[in-house]
């Protein structure tokens, strides 16, 4: 397992600055990779035609819009996110795609007033691992659901289960100053890797019928696209910019060699190893 897996920062400022802009710029690429994960979370959280669904950490709104179409015109799909640039992209996508039954709220889902018993279900694709206080967030989300309402989200399993996530940073490590060891339990990409931690948070905050199942999705990706993702997401790109030209060239060559070794049929054979978590309010 890598020691240098980038931990996506949790702070709202990150999602409103470089992090949010990177997600806006690369959303098309990531949506292509992650569509099977969207399908799984929507299937698990769908409350029936005409229902009202909250999409937590909705980002650029792809899952919110997919859910809105599935709910039909009598239903409502509401995305909440802390990132203004991503919400701008979500609203633009809703307009461009003519989806009238989707709306978007700007706020921290941990504390934002989402109403009481307002939703039939809540879903999230990778949007629930960034809260400063998980217990407060999941209590707030449970309050927003009707009794018996469904929760369905997907989060990452461990870096060990997702070895390619850290491979670019590992390849770069010999050429760059050492990085402090990230705390994988801190809010961020890997915070829900331990299923017992997730189960504990949900149980403490009043959720029942908690089920946590592995979800493995093959996400083959062209090598230049994976290089772009690696350099735009997380700290690696910024660190590389601070290096001199010769070091940059060595890092890019090492990353390319490392990823080329994982190519199958012209694509890097990446698999997203996730948990699909479901529960009821
Ligand atoms: C990894 S992205 C996933 C985005 C989207 N769900 C998708 O699948 O494309 C995480 C999202 O969570 C949002 N987020 C982070 N902390 C949040 C918070 N406290 N409240 C609401 N949204 C938050 C970020 O702004 C970002 O859009």
From TrEMBL:
GO BP annotations of the record are:
methylation
Instruction: Show the CDD domains listed in the entry.
Output: AdoMet_MTases
Q: Which UniProt keywords apply?
A: Methyltransferase, Transferase
User: For this protein, what is any one GO molecular function term?
Assistant: methyltransferase activity
InterPro entries annotated for this entry? Methyltransf_25 (IPR041698), SAM-dependent_MTases_sf (IPR029063)
Organism domain of life: Bacteria
Q: What is the designated name of this protein?
A: Methyltransferase domain-containing protein
């Amino acid at each position: 397992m890598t020691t240098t897996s980038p931990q996506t920062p949790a702070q709202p400022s990150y999602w409103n600055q470089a992090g949010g802009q990177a997600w806006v710029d690369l959303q098309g690429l990531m949506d292509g990779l992650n569509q099977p994960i969207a399908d799984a979370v929507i299937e698990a959280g769908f409350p029936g035609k005409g229902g009202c669904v909250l999409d937590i950490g909705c980002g650029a709104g792809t899952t919110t819009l997919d859910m809105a179409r599935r709910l039909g015109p009598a239903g409502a799909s509401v995305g909440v996110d802390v990132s203004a640039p991503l919400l701008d992209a979500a609203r633009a996508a809703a307009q461009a795609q003519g989806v009238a039954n989707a709306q978007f709220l700007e706020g921290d889902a941990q504390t934002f007033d989402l109403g009481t018993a307002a939703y039939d279900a809540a879903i999230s694709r990778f949007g629930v691992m960034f809260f400063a206080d998980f217990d407060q967030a999941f209590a707030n989300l449970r309050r927003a659901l009707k009794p018996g309402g469904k929760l369905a989200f997907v989060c990452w399993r461990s870096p060990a289960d997702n070895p390619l996530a850290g491979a670019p940073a590992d390849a770069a490590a010999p050429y760059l100053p050492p990085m402090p060891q990230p705390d994988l339990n801190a809010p961020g990409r890997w915070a829900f890797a331990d299923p017992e931690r997730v189960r504990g948070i949900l149980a403490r905050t009043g959720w029942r019928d908690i089920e946590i199942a592995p979800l493995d999705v093959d996400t083959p990706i062209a090598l230049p696209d994976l290089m772009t993702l690696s350099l735009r997401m997380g700290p690696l790109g910024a660190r590389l910019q601070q290096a001199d030209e010769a070091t940059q060239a060595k890092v890019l060559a090492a990353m390319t060699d490392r990823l080329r070794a994982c190519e199958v049929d012209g694509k890097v054979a990446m698999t997203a190893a996730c948990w699909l978590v479901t529960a009821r309010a």
